[in-house]
Input
Amino acid sequence: MDERTLLLLGMLRIESQHGYQLNEFIEHNLARVTDMKKPTAYALLDRLEQSGAIASRLEQEGNRPPRKVYAITEQGRQLFLRLLRETLSSAEPYVIAGDVGLMFLDALPLDEALKLLEQRLAEVRAQVAAIEKVPAHHLGLGIDLAIEHQAVLLRADDAWLTQLIERLQTRQSTSSTPAAPSAANGQ
Amino acid sequence: MDERTLLLLGMLRIESQHGYQLNEFIEHNLARVTDMKKPTAYALLDRLEQSGAIASRLEQEGNRPPRKVYAITEQGRQLFLRLLRETLSSAEPYVIAGDVGLMFLDALPLDEALKLLEQRLAEVRAQVAAIEKVPAHHLGLGIDLAIEHQAVLLRADDAWLTQLIERLQTRQSTSSTPAAPSAANGQ
DNA sequence: GGGCGCATGTAATGAGTTACATGATTGA
DNA sequence: TCAATCATGTAACTCATTACATGCGCCC
Output
């Protein structure tokens, strides 16, 4: 929740915007950084306004639906800075969804495990490729940094998975037992 | 939720256990792989039993509280395999909590940003160290694999953060403006 | 006798998602 | 005329967490 609040405040700090605008930007440019959905953003904006971190004024252009344009307040800036300092200074231990699967690799015959891991590898590579062809310097801000970070992790994942598949393949040619190597430590 | 179900089924596939036992093992050995809490596990076991994936029998030892020992059923094995194939073959794009902070690095004076990132780096390194001194081959299963994966990602994070701090430091000596480098792509 | 371990949960709460509602405008 | 875009939300639901309840046995 704090992350989402930080994101909204950070975006409003750069420029006053209405909810739709924020949501569009998030959906089109920040899908890799956050997975916040639209109603969540609207609800958060409401709460932030009630707590005084942001303030809204109604705006209307022609006969279009009225917009609620939010501006960050001084109080909001303080909150923003506090949240920013918190997130930057700490490293939440990440829990990777797919890791549970790895634990039970040996429940499948080796050749099937290999086939599945190769599918996973293909997806990881597709994600790397997708990131790499993003034009860079999206806007003045440090989005690039976040994207770069993602790319680094994805490449590490790629390398490890590739190596894991190789390890499993050598085992395939020697014996004919179920999967899971003896975990020769990475590095 | 699927991950948690997969985990419980996978553990029961190896050995019939009661809830307390499962929870203890998760808390002591799998904290890095999952963050499922006890009441969640109990509730999930309930639901799995109702759906027929597992079956329980009551057991009592002396005057201790009675235990509900769960065993996986044939139906549960099928479910387990389906979930396992799903997780192994796909790569969920991960959303890293701390990445939002990176986006707004330039909202802080460079020297403070550096100080905070160094704190983050220290935490990452502490996590790497903690992982590296885990004894390995926990049990017959592929936990080691999941741990190894974590270690690989953490080391990649370490390297990237270290490099980011360096990049920011050279910028510090040259100019005196706020943070955020031009994101020279990480290899 | 006081606290920890064993073993099960329940109740209240919260955060977030999905699916839906509304209603005008613009382009094919 | 039909669909998409603009712009705001609401309602129902799911998932998970936190805090609490219970009660016996064991060890210091």
Residues 99-174 of chain A form one domain. Chain A touches chain B through 74 residues (CB under 8 Å).
